[in-house]
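Write out the bound-state structure for magnesium ion.
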Amino acid sequence: LLPNMFQVVFVLGGPGAGKGTQCAKISEAFSYVHLSAGDLLRAARQDPNSTHGELINSFIKEGKIVPVDITIGLLKAAMEQSGKRHFLVDGFPRNLDNLDGWNKHMSDCAHVNFLLFLATTEEVMQDRILARGALAAKAGAIVRADDNVETIKKRFHTYLESTMPIINHFKSLGLCREVDSSPPPDDVFAEVAKHFV
Ligand code: UP5
Ligand code: MG
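---
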């Protein structure tokens, strides 16, 4: 374990489980840099210099997982540019391709301390996503291209099929810290924080 290695906590959970909400609280309280893979992909999609815009768009609309080289490139660049060492990697790795890509490209420069798993029911997740979409629409803001019932179904499918096996893999390694994310945000954070002190 080299002293100048990046220190990483992976944060996973289904769509709308509260990853972004909890990462914001963790980064504030424990000075971690919050990197949401989804946010980085959505930003890259808008970047006129990015050649992957169309591809990212179509994958997100279908609730499918973008090829790992694109995501890793964005994560690594953000880590290097931050000048910091402690990171919450939110919404990644979502499948075996993601995990293999991480191990191939990052294992020499980053150490994964543990995986934080935010667990709740599909019903809670769907309600939260639809509420977010409705709120954005009402405010005249942009509604995420994947915050509609049809794509939410596909996101759940991908989560169960591809991401749960990754979470179970970290469980089997003894590296998964699970928190029930059904209660209100501050109550969830009270439990989450215990894993960071
Ligand atoms: N909310 C949050 N916590 C709450 C609580 N405790 N009580 C009540 N309300 C709560 O929360 C969602 C909503 O619920 C918000 O309105 C919030 O206020 C409220 P949020 O914190 O945003 O949850 P989060 O888990 O971050 O939900 P998100 O929708 O971002 O999850 P996804 O995993 O679906 O989205 P992500 O951006 O990670 O990925 C989107 C897509 O990008 C993927 O489907 C995929 O196509 C692509 N992608 C890749 O291909 N590769 C990657 O590595 C990452 C993404
Ligand atoms: Mg999010």
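---
The mean pLDDT is 96.
Strands lie at 6-13, 33-36, 86-90, 110-119, 176-180.
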